[in-house]
Amino acid sequence: MKPAARGSPPSFDAWNAGLGAAASAIGARGFPDALAAALRLLTPFQMMNGFLYSPAGRAFDLYNEKIVAERSIIVDRYLAGAYVLDPFYDAVRGDAAERMIVMRELAPDDFLHTEYYRRHYATTEIGDEIGFVLKLENSFAGVLSLSRTGAAPLFAEDELARLRSAAPIVCALAARHWFHVPGLSLDIKDATPAARIEHPLLTRRELEIVTLVLKGHSNLSLAAVLSLSPNTVKVHRRQIYSKLAISSQAELFRLFLN
């Protein structure tokens, strides 16, 4: 595991100036940069981006303008359906209250060994991620993420504490800026269905297990979530792989979410 970072807290004057600049830029193209500059006074990070989730469970692009080189992975594949495996997606679907969330606090126990993690995080070298949950129009929710990439260390506990303390004002400013969900018409929002994990050969219980496996739950975690014995979970997984004529999670991922 990477060592935690050690940033220092900003001066009160610098933080106020940063917030003032962000507030003044609400509704303008310069808002994301102004907000990122203010947040970098609290802690360093390499990437800020965001996604939007409809009440029906569909994901949309909220803010990914700075992502160019890895866009096909971070944005395109995510919006094509991989978002259903994102712990942030599950967190927002379960509770859209404005707050800060931390990926490593939400991820299932086997998340680091999933095909989703390998393709989305390992490939893009995202090592740590936090998110600010935003309440937007028509019951949409957004998550604005800050990520550490490459050799950058994990967010330290004192940095997470500063970000949590800042969450109310950060969420308020970001929600005001993105509240009207620019670029999406109401008919698109309402008509676009959410991605689903389904297969005609599998039972509802087996599809539930497939979903949890792809999200990163180990057999023990599956057993706890589904109130089954670990042996029963193993039997279900063998039956699933046999029905689908596959032998690995990579094949399972490709079958449902390639």
TrEMBL record:
Alphabetical list of InterPro entries matching this protein: Sig_transdc_resp-reg_C-effctor, Tscrpt_reg_LuxR_C, WH-like_DNA-bd_sf
The protein's UniProt keywords, in alphabetical order, are: DNA-binding, Transcription, Transcription regulation
What GO molecular function annotations does the UniProt record carry, in alphabetical order?
DNA binding
Q: Say which domain of life the source belongs to.
A: Bacteria
Which Gene Ontology biological process is one annotated for this entry? regulation of DNA-templated transcription
Task: List the Pfam families.
Answer: GerE (PF00196)
Q: Which residues form the HTH luxR-type domain?
A: 195-258
Quote the PROSITE patterns the UniProt record gives: HTH_LUXR_2 (PS50043)
What name does this protein carry? DNA-binding response regulator
Native organism is Mesorhizobium neociceri
